[in-house]
Amino acid sequence: MINWEELKHIHVIRKLEGILAQWFHTEIFFVDERGAVRNYDPLDRQREFKNPLSAHLLPKEKSRAWIMKSMAEANEKAFKTEAPHFVWEGPAGVESVLVSRISIDNEFLGSVYAYSFLETEIPQEKRVAARKKAEEAGIDGEDFDQAVGKLRVLSEGERKYFYELVDLVAQEIVAFHTEIGKREDRIKNLNHQLGTRYSYDSMIGKSKPMQDLYGMLDKIKNSESTVLVQGENGTGKELIAKAIHYNSPRKESQFVTVNCSAFNENLLDSELFGHVRGSFTGAVKDKKGLFEAADKGTLFLDEIGDMSPTMQVKLLRVLQEGTLTPVGGTDQKKVDVRVVAATNKDLKEMVEHGTFREDLYYRINVINLVVPPLRERKEDIPILVEHFLNRGCKEKGVALKSLAKRAIEKIFDYTWPGNIRELENEVERIIVLSGDDARIPAELLSQRIREHGENSKVQGVRVAGKLKDALEELEKTMIKEGLRRTNWNKSRLAKELGISRAGLIMKVEKYDLDKRKLMRAGEVA
Ligand SMILES: Nc1ncnc2c1ncn2[C@@H]1O[C@H](COP(=O)(O)OP(=O)(O)OP(=O)(O)O)[C@@H](O)[C@H]1O
Ligand SMILES: [Mg+2]
Questions:
Q1: What topology does CATH give the domain 203-372?
Q2: What is the distance between the alpha carbons of residues 130 and 42, in angstroms, rounded to a whole number?
Q3: I need a labelling partner for 173 at 20 to 30 A (CA). Which of 57, 182, 246, 360 fits?
């Protein structure tokens, strides 16, 4: 569909209309594909008439209808013909009209109607008949004759020029429409890329794993199923839980987070399900639980792997029956809550070891989302860094900073055991440290990032002294580095190093590679 409204702002078209009016006294009408006139409003009293005949025919209702009918019929012919233009007999019975087709890719979109001109002098009897017809429509006969007398008789040469100009109007409309279409496609495309390729809500990432994740989120946003989000520390599990809620039909109600590892069993019980007055010391009045607070909304059970076996049973019951009993109470309450759970533990393995209930596992694992760690989607690092840089500089009210090439390389090479949170903190840190400098040098990066990779090469290992000491030093370095890289996943590291898990644990103790100690020493984040 052509945007007819916009055409009146197109300079070329206005210019052409001006030329046609000035030299041929023609009025230009745009008729859409259904035969409706798009650039003439009978109520518009300001309209200046370019054509002496239309100046008399258009103001009177009856004769106006002739022109309208003529335009609609000419448009129908334009629909059927293949010729770019044709001459049409005018509605007053004496004049000629040129009709130029507007078509794009064989699709007919309307016509340009150029009113009106004469091909030859009009025979006397035709002129008399036309005058009579006009008088019946309430037009003064004298005026009508005068108007017809002012119509231009176009010689063959002039006609050729005239047709070309009218065709040009039609072509300009096509060009405008095609250009707009292209632009709209481009915008749609960009929008699509922005919308689904680079981010989802406040989640950033354009890598394949993130694309897959966005695709999953789109699929589940209208579902009521329980979702289990699994991923390492700082990969964005909570962000995903929020995206699920705020894209779901429940978005108007509460999103309630409860960190299951932050409470002991009794507290979590009352926190989740509420309690009645006097059910335990300190329960001085009835208290609603978070399940009730999340009614009609979403309850985010974070660190669900840390829930005690007793609490697991209670949770399962609520999920299955949709009712709960507050601590110390007897009445059952109905709740309508969608649960999204998250954990960085391997729940499947916990089920195998009997520390997580199998029935609960299957109840919450209806939809399973695995968040990829940053090291598996390194291509996201640059846009994440840019995002955090932009945000950080804005928050601090400083001019936008950039990273030195070497710093970007270092950030790219590092394996980010703490994932996005660690990256976020690092960017935050270097913004502060860089002070007034617009460019952030690699030297400002944390030691572990700056020196990463240098340890994985044999460089720096002593080449003199006892072989045993050198080997031990190398072993310690490799294990320390490996622990950091795998986020203290000893099973995986043992496999990578080709030793047993028990063997690795012994060595970790021997070299004193306790996570907390290393953190305190600032060797890991
Ligand atoms: N894809 C992402 N784009 C932008 N920021 C992200 C993305 N993923 C995570 N973040 C940011 O990283 C930080 C950690 O995210 P979040 O708390 O959701 O992770 P988590 O998996 O719940 O972490 P934890 O395991 O520590 O609970 C937050 O500040 C979050 O805003
Ligand atoms: Mg979290």
A1: Rossmann fold (3.40.50)
A2: 23
A3: 57
